[in-house]
Fold this sequence. Notes:
Layout: E1 2-3, H1 11-18, H2 25-28, E2 54-63, E3 66-73, H3 74-79, E4 87-94, E5 100-108, H4 116-126, E6 136-140, E7 143-148, E8 159-165, H5 175-179, E9 182-188, E10 198-203, E11 206-212, E12 227-232, H6 256-292, H7 296-301, H8 305-320, H9 326-339, H10 344-348, H11 353-364, H12 368-387, H13 394-401, E13 408-409, H14 425-445, H15 452-461, H16 466-485, E14 487-488
Parallel strand pairs: 10-12
Antiparallel strand pairs: 1-5, 2-3, 2-5, 3-4, 6-7, 8-9, 9-12, 10-11, 13-14
Helix pairs in contact: 11-12, 11-16, 12-13, 12-16, 13-14, 14-16
Amino acid sequence: MITDDGCGMTFDELNDSFLKIGRNRRKHSNDITPNGRKVTGRKGLGKLAIFGVANEIEVQTVKNNLKNVFVMNLKDILNTDKEYLPQILIYNQNVDALNGTTIILRDIQRKSAFDIENLKESISKRFNFTDPNFYIELQKNGVEPQKITSTTKWEYIEPQFQWEFPKDDVSEDNYAINKGITGKIISTEKPLGEHQNGIFLYARGKLVNSNDFFGLKTTTSFAYNYFTGFINVDFIDDFEKDMVTTNRDGLTWENEELDSLRQWLQSQLFNIAREWRLKREESKTKEINETTGINLNNWVNTMPTKLRTEVNSLVNIIIKDEDIDETKTKSFLKGLKNIVPEYPYFHWRNLHPKIREVSAEYYERGDYYHAFLEAAKSYKNAVKDKSKSTEINDYKIMTNSFGSGKKLKVTSKYKYRPNGQSFSDDTLNGIEDAQMFLSQGIVKGGRNILSHEEISDLKISGLFTEKNCLDMLSILSHLYERLDDAEIN
């Protein structure tokens, strides 16, 4: 049973309009309903589709407190040799009832079960009435009634970006405005199913072309798997010839103006696909920044030029690939960042914590000489503290603190081999002397404060490069680790 609370029909309207097949209502009566909506039908052929479902139809209608009821039977229609007359059950009966029409189907040919949720989704896309007060309610025995409104079709989609028309029309001749085209195309975060993706076209609120991409080669880009939309193209329903196919599911595209519409749709989708890639990359990058704490731009920009180029190419592949989900993207980038952290050359050296602490700030801003100098100062002060030296001269602090028989012994913890035998004195003394010589050299290289001009010249000339800095920091890191193990001799 189908019922509405519309205007209803009088007995004369039933005979002159509803029961007359092939009558063009738009020519013979007002093209606008009493509530201001353009009528959707053209020639009244749609009512015959009811006989594809049931063999008998009862129509009950009330208008201005007059009720009329009649029955049509398909078998009687097919078996009559003359004009078929419906069976009138009620004629102009006075009733205290609101206007409206009810259609009851009997002897239903198809009796298979149906999914009310699937039917709800299907009907929501079959019509595109924008009036917020218009709705359809589906009822099935034992199931909660389902309401279909102008917004129901969006319930099955999770929009990410959207383009509205005519606002976002990119055509130079303002085609959407000139043709009165309205609606929107949206993209989703996840790919859509075949019955969801594609653009639906409507004329006067009814579907005239199911989800389609209008000749675009959708296999060339994953982008089209993410697009759907609902576009109103009412102007095509004003043509003298009906341009909708027999199954009412697509346009014939034979008209010159329809060809222009198809070209317009293709150009809009092509432009949207290009914008979508950029928007998706921006969104993906922003979400990665928020959920992983990885600021991609800041991270990559801390790398030397050659390494930055290589890492950037990997990052771009993973960000731009439409077929890689975000979980895998985040996992990949986290793993890559663990392998290549910020300022990778600095971190890859596995420097002593104290060396990293005092040198990082200078290194990260490219002041490589000061990065080394601060590390050397830190080491010198640590040696002086541990050896309890009162010496002022940096070089002499190292000379008096390290070496065979000096204040600090760096091999105290390592006198024995794994087999229990002791190392030879020559080996141990060699390590002690090495600590002294390397310490003397490192403080002598960074002992004197150079002028600002000389420090700048070191970097510009290449006499003290990033690599020189890292090499010196590595030596200092080694010496610091030995110092940590050292004991008072």
